[in-house]
Design brief:
This protein is 15% helix and 33% strand. By secondary structure, the protein is an alpha+beta fold.
């Protein structure tokens, strides 16, 4: 993905080093599967 058409500010917010950050939060369950819990576009993981 190169970015959002005519929205450079949003593109800069969600596209970092070629990786699209969705804001989805999840965990890996006991079977090794990804379980999506919720979406939080305002969270910053450090």
């Amino acid at each position: 993905m190169n970015g959002y058409d005519k929205d450079e500010a949003y593109t800069a917010r969600v596209l970092k080093d070629g990786v699209y950050h969705t804001g989805d939060l999840g965990r890996i369950n006991e079977k090794g599967r990804l379980v999506l819990l919720k979406r939080n576009p305002e969270i910053i993981l450090l």
